[in-house]
Amino acid sequence: MLTSQRKQLILQKLAAEGQVLSKMLSEEFNVSEDTIRRDLRELSAEGRLQRVHGGALPASAATVTFSERKNLRLDAKRAIAKRAAALIEPGQVVMIDGGTTTAELITFLPHSLQLTVVTHSPSIALGLADHPLIEVIMIGGRLFRHSLVAVGAAAIENVSRVRADIFFMGVTGIHAEAGLSTGDYEESCIKRAFAGRAAETVVMASPEKINAASAWVIGDLGLINTMVVEGDTEAHLLTPFSTKGITVIKA
């Protein structure tokens, strides 16, 4: 079997099963584990998968630039955002992460809604500027241009002084075993800090993020309480999350 054929079969198996293990692939293709690890390393370098200890997971499609992500699965993001917005109650302190799905979330907040929003995203803050009853608290720091959010030690210090009712977290991958992940180290740190200061954390998971993983781990699934997903997401994809005690809401 040619290397290219074996790699294609690995990707097909990964798409069908949600993960692959080096040892099992070695036995299936009758090659050494070193050969499989080389295949996985090369596929990872091409952005086709995310290597983890002992094997690989699907790579998230949500790690491209903000402008490219903006129109990725837009209908799904809008449906998810609309359902997530219904979780917000008047008078709450709400933390909103940066991202393309959270950008849709704020479009569903009525102008009559009174609450406080804490965000490290300039675009989220600007999007709420015409909501007279929403007080916006901006978390400052170094601008991470890829996601248009503030990151760094100063940002995390400011987050530590907030107690919020709910945090809407953006991720590039959510996986039952690999947990929550994103494409940048400093982003993973501030997302973890936000989650630690909220009574409830909600992940809005558009289809390309479910059972996918990125390089930087935010934390395990214990960080979150709720997932909001597209209405036609297949049940077998969601069962591993609900069995871990996460409330799964279909949009």
TrEMBL record:
The keyword Transcription applies. The keyword DNA-binding applies. PROSITE patterns: HTH_DEOR_1, HTH_DEOR_2. It comes from the Bacteria. Residues 3-58 form the HTH deoR-type domain. Keywords: DNA-binding, Repressor, Transcription, Transcription regulation. One of its GO terms (molecular function) is DNA-binding transcription factor activity. This is DeoR family transcriptional regulator. SMART domains: DeoRC, HTH_DEOR. It holds the Pfam family DeoRC. It comes from Mixta gaviniae.
